[in-house]
# Entry
Amino acid sequence: MIWYNKYKRLYDRPLSTIPEHIINQIKHNLKKIQSDTPLATVCLIACNEEERLLACLCSLSEMQCKYPIEIIGINNNSKDRTEEIFQRLEIPYFNESKQGPGFARQCGLDKARGKYFVNIDTDTMYPPKYIEISINKLQKKNVVGVSSSWSYIPDENHSRLGLKLYEFSRDCYMWALHFKRPELAVRGSVFSHDTELAKRYGFRTDITRGEDGSLGLQLKRHGKILFINNRKARAITNCRTVELDGSFFNSFWVRGKKAILSIKKLFTETNYYEDEESNLIK
# Structure
């Protein structure tokens, strides 16, 4: 059985269709793993994620982690029942009125009590050993951050085989990037890092995307950012980002072309990137 099938049954479903006993079981499991003295803060950011949040929380509720953790939520102006889910599951959460992932992640970072900070996207599901493996890596000498890999849920427009090929080529490129440009291999949904260092710099809130990589660029001044390519730490999400470039084939073509044109990045380091005008919040 594929590990995420259990959670996938709750994915893309409104709260009204979820039986009460399932909600209560998730709440019970989450309470058991919440710690008042956490080594790591696991922070979920959510904006209108009613139909996916329960699946994410269900996967987190069954984490196998030997370290004490806290799980907190950030509700970023949701207009659906996202906030109600946090309330019913009794997850400590905070409302962030300023819109955007940078603001939401920063809100969670400000509230974090753990030595390590685990970023979670609520449209994503996580395998049982994800947090423990991330913390194991973070505790290694001179490591300030880790970024894992992820897969996509197959659907009618994206075959399992096609996604496997896509993910393999992407992972190879990201693994190669992490030697010289680890900030380009960072993705917020699978990014964990040192909390105090991150608080020193903060997440950028003046850009529409890239707040995760921008933080990675600052963190790498202080140590290594590792790329975890371990099946037991591989998250899974929907295909929305793949579809940004149109058809599946076009996504292959566009992203493959970008990788080839930027191949020099594999061999050079930088501590500065010019902001694209289109990415700035005005």
